[in-house]
Amino acid sequence: MLPGRGRNGRAARLPRILGTRTAWTAVGDGEFFCPACGGDRNYQRLTGRRRLTLLGVPLLPRGESAPTVECAACGGHFGTDVLDHPTTTRFSAMLRDAVHTVALAVLAAGGACSRTSLETAAAAVRAAGFDDCTEDQLSALVEALEADTGRVRGEPCVPGLAIELHEALDPLAPHLAAVGRESILLQGARIALADGPYTPAERDVLATVGAALTICSDDVTRLLAAARTPS
After folding, report:
1. Coil, strand or helix: which one is 176?
2. For residue 19, what are the β-bridge partners?
3. What range(s) does the Co-chaperone DjlA N-terminal domain occupy (predicted)?
4. Which end of the chain has fewer beta carbons closer than 10 Å to its terminal beta carbon, N or C?
């Protein structure tokens, strides 16, 4: 029997004779966080139609391929769920806004009258990305917040404020490791403690922050107690 003429030889030649080819069509584009590149990149969203090929010539349709995201830099293909991960730029903005919202909520719970609380809050907000944030700006925002909601300092976390906290924290929480979520809660705790022990209203706000960050109540209690202990 000549080489390549046996059963194994025929099987080895089949992949070169028969195959499947996917024709991709771009249906959208944008910027995403590429897991292969490890950074923000441009992408194309692709849909594909598969065809059976004979000697490289497309013949019979074989259905549609799952939508795919193609990185413009590395050419990698990924499932569309990769678009659920925020870009680095978007993530930084979400984190900055979250810290700002938590700081305002804690101040509105009773710390806005204290200069030390305002200084602690302003430092946290500046570190998160609002470089020009000042104590006076935060104080004015808290006053505007109270006027808008009708809230009185020292009251528990009212529904409107709780909604704002969840709007800022809920989209961020899935993309943060446990240490990152705890860090945001601890920043709020330090603002509350800057002018003395927690008030009931401050504890209520911080409990809402913990819930929005998907931190269980036992861990919230532990972290708030740890924040009171000097390191």
Report:
1. coil
2. 53
3. 98-222
4. C
- Rounded to 5 degrees, φ, ψ at 40 are -75, 130
CA atoms within 13 Å, Cβ hemisphere of 52: 6
Q: What's at 114, amino acid-wise?
A: S
Burial-class residue 27 by CB neighbours within 10 Å (0-12, 13-18, 19+). exposed
Check residue 1 and give its pLDDT. Answer: 41
First to last CA, the chain: 82
- What is the tens place of the pLDDT at every residue in 96-131? 999 999 999 999 887 557 899 999 999 999 999 999
| Global confidence as pTM | 0.77
Calculate the CA 3 to chain-centre distance. Answer: 59
pLDDT at 6: 47
Q: Is 62 helix (H, G, I), strand (E, B) or coil?
A: strand
Distance CA 107, CA 144 (A): 12
Alpha-carbon gap, residue 184 to 213, rounded angstroms: 9
CA distance 175 to 170: 10
The runs of H, that is alpha helices, within 3-112 are: 7-17, 88-106
- The model's pLDDT over 12-58, given as tens digits with 9 standing for 90+, comes to 455 566 666 666 788 889 999 999 999 999 999 998 777 665 555 55
- pLDDT band at residue 230 using 50, 70 and 90 as cut-offs: low
CA dist., res. 57 & res. 48, Å (int): 17
Distance of CA 105 to the CA centre of its chain: 20
Which residue matches tokens 């590429």?
34
